[in-house]
Amino acid sequence: MRLKNSLLCVILAISTAAHALESGPPPVLSPMQQQAQAAHLSAQFLTRFHYKPVPLDDTLSAKVINRYIKSLDPEKFFFVQADIDQFTAENTKLDDAIYHEDLRIPFSIFNLYQQRIVERLTYARELLKQGFDFSQKEDYSFVRDKEPWPKSEAESRDLWRKRVKNDWLRLKLAGKKDQAIRDTLGKRYENSLARAYKYKSDDVFQIFMNAYATSIEPHTDYLGTSAAADFDISMKLSLVGIGAVLQERDDYTTIRELVAGGPAQLSGKLAVGDRIVGVAQGDKGAMTDVVGTRIDDVVKQIRGAKDTVVRLDILPADAGPDGKHKLISLVRNKISLEQQAAKKTILTIKNGDATRKVGVITLPAFYEDFDGRRKGDKNFRSASRDVAALLAELKKEKVDSVLMDLRNNGGGSLTEAVDLTGLFVGKGPIVQQRNARGDVNVEGDDIPAPAWTGPLAVLINRGSASASEIFAAAIQDYGRGVIIGEGSFGKGTVQTMVNLDELSHNDKPKFGELKMTIAQFFRINGGTTQLRGVTPDISLPGFSDPESFGESSYDNALPWSQVKAADYTPVGDVKGLLPQIQSRHDTRVEKDKDFQRFQEDVAELNALRKKRVISLNETDRRNEMNQQEARLKARGKAGAGDSDSKDKDAADAADLNRQDDGLQANERSLSAELAAEKAQKSAKDVLLNEAAKILGDTSDLLKANPKFAMQPASGKDK
């Protein structure tokens, strides 16, 4: 798992904050004894109990080292060929080293990686002191994953010269002046350089162990103590904190969003853009300065026990660096991560003179409060319980049909996938599992009657994986609803969490956890969702790249296979209506300007993906930019007569968002970044609207052909 700047939904962002550069070489990191013990224990488990047991030998050692190097330097910007030769000389030693609890090999690789970061970025900053000649005809290979490693330091420096030149040209084309470009890039490289001084031993171990785990199979992972805690939080949808999305921006931990109903929002004392410069515990605890501190460390200080006090030293959003601070006290409380929970909306779809109400339920994850369920908490949170409540509300609002939006739902609890399917098909088998011994077990739901028997559709994309695929596949096999969108991810494997500390009887978290593949999913029709995923009944275009995203993009994915079909009876026959549904969809989108724009965007993106080299000549790049602007202007004129202004505004916003400003996310203003995200969401709505129209067609056809609808044998609506 590579360390990246990324948001952890609703409460924190785990990214690396930049600060004023430290002098001297980066710290030399060394493994701790407990890490070596955890690696040894993990190896024992993975070789004995994994669904695909792979011995830790010389062959696997070579794969692990290669994957580890790739995770550190995927685009080959930092190491040179001599470094790689040095690393691969250790290929046959890693397995023995792990069993002897010796992690010097991965740590020595990482320490050289830190050294190379400092060398390359120091050189990049030096290049900013000079200008560049953009009249020259030269190209830059900006996608380098398949390129050879630089053969020498001179070749590496020339690569970085082109990289900096391209960064400069992008800002220049966006209208930035030379000094502003120097300032922006100087800060960018300084921030990147500062990260080399902030890595910890735990970071190195996490990256290495993930390289080891994923070398066996793509969905096997190692989670250190911090990562394991975050995984537990994401599944429970709750934690104790202040209720704020935090993000690193220009050395500060910045409030990006306030969670409705959380302590931060209810206090009325915090606003989006406020910067946290200090954290103190309790009413009298000493204030700790957190400027320049890694954001995950800041989050650890803000989290705490329920009903305890945390004090924050705040630099207001509208204050300058020397502005007046304010000190606020907040009482920590249990925060529900509502933005990951199921939500409903109602879309009104017109079809000729008829108007239909489509209830849309968006489910980002199959979450479940495992502890709450085990303890018998009557109000524990889970995806199926929340969706059941939303279905009851939609029925009261008299919707004609229900659309389950599972786009980018990466899965979660298997139990929840089964229970959620039961809400729509009633009692019966949902999914089959085969373990490492070859035993096949059928998982089903015993709900006496479905919660919704009306028209149903499921919207999926390439990001719909695991539990999402179980649900979509079962709905498809039962003939219960129409599956719409892109082909799904193709993750048909079952993982379990192995707590290494519990196995070792440790009193405190020390060794972390393994997420280990132990079984494989199969549809009730006998085929697996592994590798091939779920093929939609009605396909919609999407931005995903199957060559780089999805199960088929992994070089060591488990193959597709098949078992005997389960004993089940379809409850409907939506397939019988698919030709008519497809025909209506095709006719409609031919006249839908917004949908046509979306298809053009997808085609353009696919063409750009094939482009791995870009010109560093200013005239050539301006010509490309002018062609793009001309295309967008022509599109705007063509759509000027559209009656649906809302959809047109969404498309225009998406177009605007694609204009290259040469900036990285944390270099834009917070308001600009949030506006860009809103525009991206608007682009997604084009597909959602069409999916709702497809479901509207389905409703009409089911009403005219009731024999294809869900039969009452499964019970009446609850």
Structural commentary:
The chain has 718 residues and is of the alpha+beta class. The protein has 21 helices and 23 strands. The strands form 6 sheets. Strands 6, 7, 8, 9, 10 and 11 form a 6-stranded antiparallel β-sheet that branches. The protein has a 6-stranded mixed β-sheet with strand order 13-14-15-18-19-22, with helices on both faces. Helix 5 runs antiparallel to helix 7 and helix 13 runs parallel beside helix 14.
Helical run tally:
21
**Biggest sheet overview:** 6 strands, antiparallel
Low-confidence stretches: 1-22, 641-657, 714-718
What coarse outline follows from CA principal-axis ratios? globular
Mean pLDDT, nearest integer? 86
Q: Number of DSSP strands?
A: 23
Strand content: 15-25%
EC number: 3.4.21.102
Pfam families: DUF3340, PDZ, Peptidase_S41, TSP_NTD
Enzyme class: hydrolase
GO molecular function: serine-type endopeptidase activity
Short overview:
It contains 21 helices and 23 strands. It is of the alpha+beta class.
Features:
718 residues, alpha+beta, 6-stranded antiparallel sheet, 6-stranded mixed sheet, 21 helices, disordered N terminus, disordered C terminus, hydrolase
Secondary structure elements and their pairing?
Layout: E1 6-8, E2 12-14, H1 33-49, H2 58-72, H3 81-88, H4 94-99, H5 104-127, E3 139-141, H6 153-173, H7 178-195, H8 201-216, E4 221-223, H9 225-236, E5 238-241, E6 244-249, E7 252-258, H10 263-267, E8 275-281, E9 288-289, H11 295-302, E10 309-315, E11 326-331, E12 333-336, E13 343-351, E14 354-362, H12 370-374, H13 383-396, E15 401-405, H14 414-425, E16 428-435, E17 440-445, E18 456-460, H15 467-477, E19 482-485, E20 493-499, H16 500-503, E21 513-522, E22 538-539, H17 578-591, H18 593-609, E23 613-615, H19 618-638, H20 645-657, H21 670-704
Parallel strand pairs: 14-15, 15-18, 18-19, 19-22
Antiparallel strand pairs: 1-2, 3-23, 4-21, 5-12, 6-7, 7-8, 8-9, 8-10, 10-11, 13-14, 16-17, 16-21, 20-21
Helix pairs in contact: 2-5, 2-8, 5-6, 5-7, 6-7, 13-14, 14-15, 17-21, 20-21
